[in-house]
Write a structure and sequence with these properties.
The complex is a heterodimer of chains A (280) and B (283). In chain A, 42% of the residues lie in helices and 17% in strands. Chain A has helices at residues 14-27, 55-61, 71-74, 105-116, 119-123, 143-146, 161-181, 198-209, 221-228, 233-236, 241-254, 268-279, and strands at 2-8, 31-37, 76-77, 87-92, 127-133, 152-157, 184-191, 213-217. Chain A has an eight-stranded mixed sheet with strand order 3-4-2-5-1-6-7-8, with helices on both faces. Chain B has helices at 14-27, 56-62, 72-75, 106-117, 120-123, 144-147, 162-182, 199-210, 222-229, 234-237, 242-256, 268-278; strands at residues 2-8, 31-37, 77-78, 88-93, 128-134, 153-158, 185-192, 214-218. The termini of chain B are far apart.
């Protein structure tokens, strides 16, 4: 079983990437478990028939007593079926009540719960995809890297300063824990927002930080339109360039690769100055 | 003393908007401290001629979190723009944790503790404090200004996008939770437009649904982007533009605002259903 983490700042498109990766990998006949680790709890929204109850909510309703919880309460099969024999399972970590506690607690609790309930043994997925909010790379949200759940970390970024800043922070977390947990960076996934010189900015950022850009997903209305009706682009436009990009990316991630890197981070002042030179 | 907080999801433009508010308020003759509460510590960038001050948390780390030997000047900076206004404009940044470790909201808590210990409010004779706070993760840390009553009036920067409205609902839930204990109230929504069709209408209806109002719209504008790129506000880059007038009006509306409410937020399902009825398409 391979476990990967997809980090990205809120609204960068990390759930879209994770969802299409799950689809592409299931199309290859594999069993996929996608775990949304964003308090917003809608990572798997386009894969399920309705809104699924987050693990943290299920736990709270059962006074955190695992005895009373069934696997079906926290892991839900996707509405999608695959001729290849592959399948997708979905779970959402959830988050705290606004204003109290720790934002990363959902991530920690969810992963602990999956382990305690032997979800991996029962579902025996080929791959687990953690889709994680990367805006605040605190102890909570970096747990999959810290405790070695994610063998490989991938970061979704655009050319925007905010996105590169969070990418840089996630790299910092990978570096911090590389010895302790064996954390490795798989590379960057560029999800373009339509800025000028955006591809160059992201490629330059990758070379400055010693990592690779695995794929560049162009700014696309098509994916947005599909998402608007809760569909993947594979269902609506199977032959589109967008669909091909996701499939390519999935195959790259599935392949064994030993070129995983430990990145070089930039400090924010340098990052800011470097980025400003591009946009002026 | 007015105690304002501007919340919004990361990347929504809250630092840009709050820098304009701080400048405009100082230009009206008030003495204001603009405290950035985002780990990225670039909230005050447009007010400091492109420089970024050192974060309070970084300075505290060097002194093992003891404030005894610290001076107010170590952590609070007077803006170079202060000389151009009739009031006074000060800035400070809370900072955040090292990547992967600790609590991200800690910077906010520590910054407020340090400013209080160094008597910033008395020494600088402040008329107003503005907290610019990251609202993506409304955890205990980032809701400190609301929870402990440091901020009495909360304004939320939002576009018409779903993610942004979701963050606004979460922030509203934190306000509603602590309203009685801390006296915090929602002052209104600041619409930062993203060039979506029908965006003003969606935001106006959303504000009504929350039990609040729009205190101003910031137009979608290339001028604002250019000014930001240059490390300036519109008050320096294009003071006579309609965009700058919109900022002046926004600040005036906030200063004059006398209707503060306890919001009635929507949960995720309610917002999702509401969104299905009201959603707009990107232009």
């Amino acid at each position: 079983m391979k476990q990967i983490a997809i980090y990205g700042k809120g609204s960068i498109g990390k759930s879209t990437i994770a969802t299409h990766l799950s689809y592409a990998i299931a199309s290859r006949g594999k069993r996929v478990l996608q775990v949304g680790c964003d308090p917003q709890s809608d990572s798997t929204h386009n894969l399920t028939a309705g809104h699924i109850k987050p693990i943290l909510t299920v736990l709270a309703e059962n006074d955190f007593d695992y005895e009373d919880i069934e696997l079906e309460d926290i892991v839900h099969p996707s509405r999608l079926t695959f001729d290849s024999g592959g399948s997708i399972f979905c779970a959402e970590a959830g988050g705290p009540e606004p204003g109290v506690g720790c934002g990363g607690k959902g991530t920690i609790e969810a992963i602990t719960t999956l382990k305690k309930m032997h979800v991996f043994e029962e579902l025996h997925p080929d791959i687990v995809i953690y889709d994680i909010l990367g805006d605040v790379v605190c102890g909570g949200f970096s747990q999959p890297i810290r405790d070695g759940f994610a063998d490989e970390t991938y970061i979704v970024t655009s050319g925007e300063l905010e996105a590169l800043y969070q990418a840089n922070n996630v790299m910092g977390a990978v570096n911090r824990f590389k010895n302790r947990s064996g954390a490795k960076l798989g590379g960057l996934i560029a999800n373009l927002k339509g800025m000028e010189k955006e591809e160059r900015i992201i490629k330059d950022f990758a070379s400055k930080t010693g990592t690779d850009v695995l794929t560049i997903v162009p700014f696309s209305q098509l994916v947005k339109q599909c998402s608007g009706v809760n569909k993947t682009v594979y269902e609506e436009h199977a032959d589109s360039m967008e669909a091909q990009k996701y499939t390519q990316l999935a195959d790259m991630i599935l392949a064994e690769h030993d070129e995983l890197t430990t990145p070089q981070t930039m400090n924010f002042e340098d990052l800011y100055e470097w980025w400003s030179d591009y946009v002026h | 003393m007015r105690q304002l907080a501007i919340y919004g999801k990361g990347g929504i433009g809250k630092s840009m908007v709050s820098s304009h508010i701080s400048f405009a308020v100082a230009d009206m003759g008030m003495r204001i401290l603009h405290l950035g509460c985002d780990p990225k510590h670039d909230s005050t960038r447009l007010l400091l001629a492109g420089k970024m001050p050192r974060a309070i948390l970084d300075i505290l780390r060097e002194s093992d979190f003891r404030t005894g030997s610290m001076e107010l000047e170590d952590i609070v900076f007077e803006s170079p723009l202060s000389a151009t206004v009739s009031g006074a404009l000060f800035g400070a940044e809370s900072g955040g944790p090292e990547a992967g470790a600790g609590c991200a909201g800690k910077g906010v808590t520590e910054a407020i503790r340090t400013l209080t210990a160094l008597k910033a409010h008395e020494k600088l004779e402040l008329d107003a404090v503005l907290y610019d706070v990251l609202g993506d993760v409304v955890c205990g840390g980032f809701s400190m200004p609301i929870k402990r009553g440091h901020a009495k009036e909360i304004y939320i920067v939002s576009s018409g996008e779903f993610q942004s409205l979701f963050a606004a609902c979460n922030i509203s839930r934190a306000i509603a939770r602590f309203a009685e204990r801390s006296g915090a109230r929602l002052g209104g929504i600041i619409g930062n437009l993203r060039n979506m069709e029908g965006e003003q209408e969606v935001l106006t209806k959303f504000a009504e649904r929350l039990g609040t109002k729009i205190v101003g719209f910031v137009p979608y504008s290339e001028k604002i982007k250019t000014a930001s790129g240059r490390g300036e506000t519109l008050f320096q880059y294009a003071p006579d533009s309609p965009e700058c007038d919109a900022m002046r009006q926004l600040a005036q509306n906030i200063v004059d605002n006398d209707t503060l409410n306890i919001p009635e937020p929507l949960n995720f399902d309610e917002l999702h259903n509401w969104w299905q009825e009201h959603k707009v398409l990107a232009a």
